Task: inverse folding
């Protein structure tokens, strides 16, 4: 009976994928929804067919980029993979990825499964399929109406990790909220070796209390959010020793450079994506691939050549003008976008798109935790706001001290983009939250293709 249900589920998913392709829809999760309705354990049945293992990437920021870096490197190394690389990270999206990679009769010839998973869906996923490696990016406040405060999300992760006791954890040594998950697990850690002294914003530090005893942590320096060099004066907990370390971090001519140090070996890495968050993305991808036995040259050849994911520091050339699209969906992610803005000293205009759809989280009070006051140092000439909560964003900028004559409000993203590109500037930044990302990316791609 399971086999028949599996065949029906895969066939239904593939038909829906075909329909989505014909109609121009993304269809990254819908096929999985119907597959799970026909075969509730479709993930378990297909994951059991993966030959070498399953790598799961979870955490607040950086999941999609890191997961896709790992997947791209494995594919380049000659392995067959299953990957939800569009970022659909709930059970329906994961089921869709497995069905897409499967044959019509429920066969699956994959060496690895590279799966990005939503934190709240981890226990549900691990109930069906046990991972071999779990990569944890970081933990920040995100979608408060779904997750609640950061401590509740940490409890969700711990519950999931306890369900997979044999899995190898790869953790951020510089994040005091998630680094504690490795105690007694033989985890591998990644981190930054020293303070890179980059210009940064003032932030609310959500996880700046010790997760073991509750005492306030003391920091030698912050990198962003609660990420940094910390120690607890009460119980002595501090950054675990990082097995994979980034050192010599610098930005030269718009290119990010740093060295990766591991087990006495030092290799140089670089990227077109400039930001401390991407140093961590590349570090954890490097760690996972190294543990899987991929050679260092193969890892770096893909990591350094990888282009930004859509919306994650995507760059567009439109009629001689440069436009950057940055996903900014929670306070820490938005503050990293602000940091990028203020470190780019060129003249620019800025467009902010804020939605409150279910995928974004309907509680947008987090915008008051973003350091828009520091963004005034970005030397932008004009700001535009749009999205379903455009007036909330306008109000936030007004209270941050912006001259309201420099702020324009637009009903649609297309209208805002058109008006913005008509100004005399050569550089633009577009900051969007989750549901605004894809429409903005499509619109900018079309404008780039048309050359206007």
Result:
């Amino acid at each position: 009976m399971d086999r028949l249900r599996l065949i029906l589920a895969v066939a239904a998913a593939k038909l829906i994928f075909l329909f989505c392709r014909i109609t121009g829809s993304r269809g990254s999760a819908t096929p999985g929804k119907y597959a799970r309705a026909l075969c509730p354990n479709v993930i378990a049945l297909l994951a059991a067919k993966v030959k070498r293992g399953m790598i799961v990437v979870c955490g607040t920021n950086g999941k999609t980029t890191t997961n896709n870096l790992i997947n791209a490197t494995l594919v380049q190394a000659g392995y067959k993979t299953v990957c939800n690389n569009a970022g659909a990270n709930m059970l329906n999206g994961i089921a869709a990825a497995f069905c897409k990679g499967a044959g019509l009769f429920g066969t699956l010839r994959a060496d690895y499964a590279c799966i990005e998973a939503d934190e709240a869906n981890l226990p549900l996923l691990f109930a069906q399929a046990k991972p071999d490696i779990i990569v944890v990016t970081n933990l920040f406040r995100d979608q408060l109406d779904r997750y609640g405060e950061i401590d509740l999300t940490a409890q969700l992760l711990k519950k999931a990790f306890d369900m997979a006791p044999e899995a190898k954890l790869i953790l951020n040594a510089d994040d005091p909220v998630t680094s504690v998950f490795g105690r007694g697990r033989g985890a591998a850690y990644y981190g930054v070796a020293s303070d890179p002294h980059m210009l940064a914003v003032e932030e609310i530090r959500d996880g700046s209390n010790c997760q073991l005893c509750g005492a306030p942590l003391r920091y030698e320096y912050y990198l962003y959010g609660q990420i940094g060099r910390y120690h607890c004066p009460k119980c002595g907990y501090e950054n675990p020793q990082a097995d994979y370390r980034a050192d010599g971090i610098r930005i030269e001519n718009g290119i990010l450079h740093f060295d990766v140090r591991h087990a006495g070996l030092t290799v140089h890495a670089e990227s077109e994506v400039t930001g401390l968050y991407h140093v961590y993305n590349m570090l954890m991808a490097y760690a996972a691939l190294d543990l899987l036995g991929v050679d260092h040259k193969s890892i770096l050849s893909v990591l350094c050549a990888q282009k930004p994911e859509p919306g994650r520091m995507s760059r567009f050339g439109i009629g001689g003008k440069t436009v950057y699209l940055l996903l900014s969906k929670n306070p820490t992610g938005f503050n990293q976008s602000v940091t990028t803005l203020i470190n780019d000293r060129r003249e620019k205009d800025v467009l902010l798109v804020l939605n409150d759809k279910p995928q974004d989280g309907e509680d947008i009070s987090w915008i008051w935790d973003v350091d828009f006051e520091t963004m005034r140092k970005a030397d932008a000439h004009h700001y535009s706001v749009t999205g379903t909560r455009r007036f909330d964003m306008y109000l936030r900028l007004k209270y941050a001290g912006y001259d309201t004559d420099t702020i324009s409000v637009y009903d649609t993203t297309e209208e805002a983009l058109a008006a913005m590109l008509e100004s005399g500037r050569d550089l633009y930044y577009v900051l969007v939250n989750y549901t605004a990302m894809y429409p903005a990316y499509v619109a900018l791609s079309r404008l780039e293709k048309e050359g206007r």
Q: What stands out?
A: Confidence is low (pLDDT under 50) at residues 143-148. The two ends are 56 Å apart (CA to CA).
